[in-house]
């Protein structure tokens, strides 16, 4: 019998152990790569969401600071209301003076030559007395004009201080926006670098081109900033933005500022007593009608303050008063009108009656007189949301993208003994059939994420997005195929972009 062959089992066992070891190494490499890829995607999601949160907070800051700007407009209107109400006191006295000129005329009209004693000529005496009372009213009118004139310097300082406050608020809005733009561009500013240190120290920052897309999305959400994205609405005019903040400010006025009507309970009691009785003694002088209003307007005159003012872009802040007096004394009566008006603008303003006026009123630069980026400390601008009717653009609500890369293998074999070499490949020579190569793991992976900054007011979900209510929020949001392709193209991954653009391809 022939001797049996030996050693075959050893060869088979060695080959099996080699393949088993290769499978173990491959599984370790793949498991490590999958773990790193999971970390990378979670980090990318965290960065996109965190950038969206920063943007939502910025928009909420804009909303609150826009309210502060509108409140400052209201405060400025109220200051003008006080000043015009005070200015009207001198003209009220002059209206009473006119009343007594009329009384004098009626008394003299009834005066005729009469015999001695003079008591028979009462109408003539009453005419002279009415003239003296009219003179007293005129003197008191000048006295009240001077009192108002003495406060005008303080009034101008108050208006200028309020204007500076509005400019300062806008400057802070611009500063906050600049810091946000830096964070959207690199995903590493404003404390976002801590995410990378905690989640994935080996990860890159946000791709610069993708960061540029984030900046463009933010810019297109703010009316007045340059929007480089195609298909988005153009900027509204400076006047249109001025109309919006003016309407909000005027709608926010308290009742006394917006509508001062009869009876005038705000008049000083001593003034009222002097006007009604003290100066004339007998009879009375009464204010029988009054209308007063202070608001942000774009023209002078009674109609601008007391009627609807279409296209009001708020080039001046001011107030207007007018009313009627009625006097009766002895055998005569008189009726007259009074008024006062004051405005502050960039051209010196206006103040009447002139006796209460001593200088220019140029403390207000207008509601929205400049382009947004040129407005810091030089105009009273505000941040306005740029609405977009296109649902595909989420109605103008901004998107935030993240594209981050990270090595999926350890950078040194000592940190991962299962990595046979630094190339992540195994090659062997198969004799006459050639060589073979196995890739154990990809060297680098990429994380792609998207978040949406959206407006939602609880209980009023149909409310349009705006920058007067602080209800901006952030959430992770699914990609459309087109968006994913655009982000990947911006990141330089054209092959992946072509795959992402395939219809119905799950992302």
Structure characterization notes:
By secondary structure, this protein is an alpha+beta fold. Helices cover 47% and strands 17% of the residues. It has helices at residues 8-109, 122-186, 193-199, 208-221, 238-251, 255-258, 269-278, 302-306, 481-490, 494-500, and strands at 222-223, 260-261, 284-297, 316-329, 332-344, 350-352, 384-385, 399-407, 425-429, 435-439, 444-455, 472-476. The strands form four sheets. A five-stranded antiparallel beta sheet has the order 2-3-4-5-6. Strands 8-11-12 form a three-stranded antiparallel beta sheet. Strands 1-7 form a two-stranded antiparallel ribbon. A hairpin with a 5-residue loop joins strand 9 and strand 10. The longest helix is centred in the N-terminal third of the chain and has 102 residues, at 8-109. The chain is rod-shaped, with a radius of gyration of 40 Å. The mean pLDDT is 87.
